[in-house]
Amino acid sequence: MAKTFTKLVSLVAYDATLTERTDDFYLRAKTMPDTVSLRDIAAEVATRLNRNEDEIFAVLNDAERVKADAVASSYIVSTPTALMRPCAGGTVLKSDLSQAIDRKKVKVYATLSMGPLLRTEMEGCRVELFTQPAVVGPLLNGAVAQTRAADGTVSTRAPQAGKNIRLTGRNIKLAGADASVGVTFTSVETPSKKVFVPLEDVTVNEPKQLIFVLPAGVTDGLWRVKICTQYGSGGHNVVKPRVYELDEPMGVGSAYQVPDSGSGSGSGDSGSGEDGDQNEYPLG
User: Fold this and answer.
1) Quick one: 148 and 217 in the same domain?
2) CATH code at 40?
3) Do 83 and 77 meet the contact criterion of CB atoms below 8 Å apart?
4) Which residues make beta-bridge pairs with 84?
5) Where do the DUF4469 domain residues begin and end (predicted)?
6) CB contact set of 278 (below 8 Å; sequence gap of 6+)
7) Is the predicted pLDDT of residue 34 greater than 90, yes or no?
8) C-alpha–C-alpha distance, residues 185 and 222, integer Å
9) Hey, which bits of the chain come out as E strands?
10) What CA–CA distance (Å, rounded) separates 170 from 102?
């Protein structure tokens, strides 16, 4: 599949600009631009075992269906790479208990955490560290949803369509008349699926944060986030739009939990009390 697995993870150190200290950085793994699909995995397995790729793909695809059927049947599925657990959320009234379940009130989903093989591979992989160079254009640090309670406290959670989302970074204010200015979400699973948020739909538009309602088209799953702006230093617009993409895909939906972990990064709550989700979204 023309991909080389080096077992090397590149870490990028970003300046934690929103903390009081001036010498602290947070780390984030830099992901490869391409996603490894099930077809890619089948091709690699076929090469290693000298087998027919289509046959391997059919077997792997059926295995994925069996795992999905099992979790949807209330089983915990444990494989060498992942532990999958069925979960549910929502609130119902006492009068609802004698009625058919309203799926608009109850959300059923699954959480994933690392299995033993993946844990061993991640602990044994090589690591290299880079310092993010001085910013000359927009720097998109993170994406998270926030809810403010009546007492003023703020809780963070994974982004969900129809709810406010907050993007943080540096020089990310949307400005300029170019048609490309805005925020673009691209589905990892289906790269041709894109959702664009124009400048006028952003309710809070500041150099260090953007807040807006996540469109309904950004459904549960992994999405790449890209901003485009002509905002420049000193409040003057630049002629050529500047673009920056979040290094890691953003997880949308209940399966991607986001903890309160300060300016650094953290992993989500898988419900198992161990590793949690593999997607981390540190606030800038």
Assistant:
1) yes
2) 4.10.520.10
3) yes
4) 77, 112
5) 160-242
6) 112, 114, 267
7) no
8) 10
9) 8-15, 25-29, 77-78, 82-90, 106-114, 126-131, 139-148, 154-157, 164-170, 182-187, 194-198, 202-206, 209-213, 221-231, 237-245, 250-252
10) 42
Q: How far is CA 267 from CA 71, 154, 210, 282, in A?
A: 22, 19, 23, 10
Q: What is the CA radius of gyration of the chain?
A: 21
pLDDT digits (tens, 9 = 90+) for 100-143: 888 888 889 999 999 999 999 999 999 988 765 544 445 566 66
Task: Give this prediction's pTM.
Answer: 0.55
In Å, how far from its chain's centre is CA 149? Answer: 24
Q: Which residues contact 27 (CB under 8 A, 6 or more apart)?
A: 11, 12, 13, 14, 129, 264, 265
Residue 185 tokens read as 């979400």
Q: Look up the domain containing 114 and give its range.
A: 6-128
When divided into structural domains, the chain yields a total of: 2
284 in a structural domain: no
Q: How far apart, in whole angstroms, are the C-alpha atoms of residue 176 and residue 138?
A: 14
